[in-house]
């Protein structure tokens, strides 16, 4: 059974850092495109970052460029999102998602592309 489990969320002050983890089971993350999305209360889900299969090309949404870094550890079958210089507007539920096949060769931040989703982890940036 294919499963994604996020962890690492929490409460952090503005300017702080968090590292989110997306642990996969039932499939090998190296062969899937994995993306992080977030959704704040009353707002639509938005793409944050993605990493394509194999070669590992990455993509970032403009609001997080230069602050967030996505990475993949094939040995641990886990994808990470390192978030630095956090701002109150980064507050949201963060979810990871995966897609296989030809779409895994892309790295797009459109949630409709992705087949499998985790349950999400809450990130709150507040003083």
What do you see in this structure?
This protein is mainly beta. Helices cover 0% and strands 46% of the residues. It contains no helices and eleven strands. It has strands at residues 3-7, 10-12, 18-25, 33-39, 46-51, 58-60, 68-73, 78-83, 92-99, 116-117, 121-125. The strands form two sheets. Strands 2, 4, 5, 6, 9, 10 and 11 form a seven-stranded mixed sheet that branches. A four-stranded antiparallel sheet has the order 1-3-8-7, with no helix packed on it. It is globular, with a radius of gyration of 13 Å. It starts with a strand and ends with a strand.
Summed up:
This protein is mainly β and 127 residues long. It contains no helices and eleven strands.
